[in-house]
């Protein structure tokens, strides 16, 4: 009896909405646009500049570490400085959805809620796109992580590479954790934190979709909670106890 052929799944498309992507491992970036403010208050889509911050490139590398075959989209919403706006982020997210993104990772957090970003996130979720964003484990909300339906991620020192945690209680800004992954860029100081944890979870979701273990149309939290290595928040012990 001939075995049934293994189904061939389409490549999973991950949009990195960040500072740009320089030379990711594996296949090159499929599409890239930069989003810049115009004098009339609108947003211009222009060719991207080099990633001078290095942050988006690190995020892309972590996504590809988890899912080497991911098709990457580069939505550059930071320029030469680590500051952006809700309008630019919303424009990058909308563009990514239009280009067929399955997962969008936003390793950033804005302190103020804005209608333009809320509308862009709601439209992405309605289109079936999974939106992953970084958030502090504790403290006040940041956006887009605070919007309903967004996968909210913080760093969790318990997690190794390829592991994730589900905080479980619904409290705090973040709901899931992953390895904060100290990333060393040539010529830069070591960095790490919630933004890289979000990248890792976006990559794990992409890999699960590529492998068929997370089905299209299934809510991401179903797979995330089943895959969690740890449930509950990380307990911090002081030196005195």
Give descriptors for this structure.
single chain; 241 residues; alpha/beta; Rossmann fold; 5 helices; 26% helix; serine-type endopeptidase activity; Peptidase_S8/S53_dom_sf; hydrolase; Peptidase_S8_subtilisin-like; Peptidase S8/S53 domain-containing protein
CATH architecture: 3-Layer(aba) Sandwich
Which superfamily, in CATH terms, is the homologous superfamily?
Peptidase S8/S53 domain
Return residue spans where pLDDT drops below 50 for at least 5 consecutive residues: 3-8, 237-241
Strand order of the biggest β-sheet: 3-2-4-1-5-6-7-9-8-10
How much strand? Answer: 15-25%
Count of distinct strands? 10
Helix coverage percent: 25-40%
Quaternary structure state of the chains depicted = single chain
Family: Belongs to the peptidase S8 family.
Active site: 18, 55, 195
InterPro entries: Peptidase_S8/S53_dom, Peptidase_S8/S53_dom_sf, Peptidase_S8_subtilisin-like
Domain Peptidase S8/S53: 12-218
Write a structural description:
One of its GO terms (molecular function) is serine-type endopeptidase activity. Keywords: Hydrolase, Protease, Serine protease. One of its GO terms (biological process) is proteolysis. Residues 12-218 form the Peptidase S8/S53 domain. Pfam families: Peptidase_S8. The protein starts with 12 loop residues before the first strand and ends in a 10-residue tail after the last strand. Strands 3-2-4-1-5-6-7-9-8-10 form a 10-stranded mixed beta sheet, sandwiched between helices. The model is unreliable at 3-8 and 237-241 (pLDDT under 50). With 241 residues, the protein is of the alpha/beta class. Helix 1 packs parallel to helix 4 (194-211) and helix 2 (86-98) packs parallel to helix 3 (115-126). Helix content is 26%, strand content 19%. Helix 3 (115-126) links the parallel strand 5 and strand 6. The protein has one domain (13-231): Peptidase S8/S53 domain (Rossmann fold), CATH 3.40.50.200. The chain is built from 5 helices and 10 strands; from the N terminus they run E-E-E-H-E-H-E-H-E-E-E-E-H-H-E.
């Amino acid at each position: 009896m001939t075995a049934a052929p293994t189904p061939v799944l389409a490549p999973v498309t991950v949009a990195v909405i960040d500072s740009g992507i320089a030379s990711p491992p594996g296949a090159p970036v499929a599409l890239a646009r930069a989003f810049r403010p115009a004098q009339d208050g609108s947003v211009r889509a222009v060719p991207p500049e080099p990633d001078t911050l290095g942050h988006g490139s690190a995020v892309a590398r972590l996504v590809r570490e988890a899912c080497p075959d991911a098709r990457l989209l580069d939505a550059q919403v930071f320029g030469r400085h680590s500051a952006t706006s809700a309008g630019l982020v919303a424009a990058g997210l909308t563009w990514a959805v239009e280009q067929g993104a399955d997962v969008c990772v936003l390793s950033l957090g804005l302190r103020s809620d804005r209608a333009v970003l809320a509308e862009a996130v709601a439209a992405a979720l309605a289109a079936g796109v999974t939106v992953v964003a970084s958030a502090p484990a504790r403290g006040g909300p940041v956006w887009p992580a605070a919007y309903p339906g967004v996968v909210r991620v913080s760093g969790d020192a318990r997690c190794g590479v390829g592991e994730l945690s589900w905080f479980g209680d619904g409290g705090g800004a973040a709901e899931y954790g992953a390895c904060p992954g100290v990333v060393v860029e040539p010529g830069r100081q070591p960095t790490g934190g919630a933004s890289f944890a979000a990248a890792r979870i976006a990559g794990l979701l992409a890999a699960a979709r590529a492998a068929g273990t997370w089905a299209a149309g299934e809510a991401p939290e179903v797979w995330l909670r089943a895959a969690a290595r740890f449930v509950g928040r990380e307990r911090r012990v002081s030196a005195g106890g």
